[in-house]
Amino acid sequence: MKKIYFLTGSQDLYGEETLAQAEKDSLEMVRFLNEKIGDIAEIVHTPIVKTSNEAEDLCVKASADKDCIAVIMWMHTFSPAKMWIRALKALKKPMLHLHTQYNEKLPYDSIDMDFMNLNQSAHGDREFGFICTRLGIKREVVAGYYKHDDVIAQIRRFAHAAEGVDFCKGMKVAMFGNNMRDVAVTDGDRVESEIKYGWNVNYYGIGDLVKIANSVTDAEIDAKMAEYTDKYEMDTENIDAVREQAKYEVALDKFIAKENAAAFTDTFQDLHGLNQLPGIAAQNIMAKGIGFGPEGDYKTAALAAVLQKIAAGREGATGFMEDYTYDLTSGEELELAAHMLEVSPVFAASKPKIQVHHLGIGNKSDPARLVFDGIVGEGIAVSMVDMGDRFRLVCARIDLVKQPKEMPKLPVARLMWKIVPDFKTGAAAWIYAGGAHHAVVSTALTTEDIRLFAKLTDTELVIIDEKTELNAFEQQLELLDMMAKLKK
């Protein structure tokens, strides 16, 4: 079980009675938070912090605990911030500064200086906040009474983001083949990815997968086919092509388990030994929470795995998607997003159909794939790009809509959406920001989730939403470039 340490600040000047009451209050708060947050991570109560040594010991302990994904800091009384300097410099875990207090309301009839000395969060949290700012610590500040639903929702969002950051550490991404030839935006610095995020990205020859696929038994293929017919509608007579995909998925499952990979990529330019480009195989695996990126796009594969982890348990869908083509009817512009084959069935509005069609790229046999129309609702599209001297996340608000007409001759899964705030602004902003044609789309996450992940990983973020205005947006990008050069 993952943990979040709860640190309560005070000092040794208040006497045993006050400190004992602060300890009791802190423990009660932790019990309550565990009722509300404990399904994500256990909130671990720690002794009241009274000295710099105690503060440092707890931060060192949290940083060394592999099961600890974050800390929550709260100052019950005044807690001189110089005593936190060594502790905060030693802290290596994401921090939420909870600006709250034990009591919701003031006891107007009985309030005295003893009450004031005990309940000084308005005082102590400002002192603590200053030293965090002075030290340049990236953290999330949540203000409000800790039992209120909106505050709990913010803490839960932080916990999910911290879970995603923790998931990054040591996450393995397997690249079958390399990046698609001559393509720029899907490429990136794999060494820097591991330094910054913990993503261990490595190349594997497609022969490694072919060897496993050649050892798959008919019984294993039969079991996978039974899964397909249970989940999907068989809409083809070319069962051999579907069985070929089932064989690939069994092989991929074995490879992923053996390598403990959380994400993978392939490319149609490197399929030696395979008869088809993986279609259903990749689609079905994505539905299990494994990240995927086509054409060697390891950044999208890794980001998909992380955002699927953050979104786990929430309503909605999350997965890889590609910008493809537009309907540019004036004032009613729509984007049609799809890919050659690999769209996760989590986006399906109805039961997907298994079909086999010709694929005019890759020079392989006709691959089996899932075909469906996409879900509707509010969502986001998130792209990670390598700017050379830093990574950038581009997050755009989108509104997924029902396709206006049938597309009987388009044999792929697809989504359609309206670009926010409007086509001209949203599309131009995405291009100005250098956003890729590959993205992770989610109806489970919001821009707030991406903002938190970006903050906790110190990743540059630009958001495109209903407030976006191009002149200000371009100025923001110029400032970000200037800041990056100054840091360098």
TrEMBL record:
Residues 318-460 form the L-arabinose isomerase C-terminal domain. One of its GO terms (cellular component) is cytosol. Keywords: Arabinose catabolism, Carbohydrate metabolism, Isomerase, Manganese, Metal-binding. GO terms for biological process: L-arabinose catabolic process to D-xylulose 5-phosphate. It is an enzyme of class 5 (isomerase). Residues 172-313 form the L-arabinose isomerase central domain. SUPFAM superfamilies: FucI/AraA C-terminal domain-like, FucI/AraA N-terminal and middle domains. InterPro entries: Ara_Isoase_C, AraA_central, AraA_N, AraA_N_sf, Fuc/Ara_isomerase_C, Fucose_isomerase_N/cen_sf, Lara_isomerase. Its EC number is 5.3.1.4. Residues 3-165 form the L-arabinose isomerase N-terminal domain. Coiled coil: none annotated. It comes from the Bacteria. GO terms for molecular function: L-arabinose isomerase activity; metal ion binding. NCBIfam families: PRK02929.1 (NF002795). This is L-arabinose isomerase. The gene is araA.
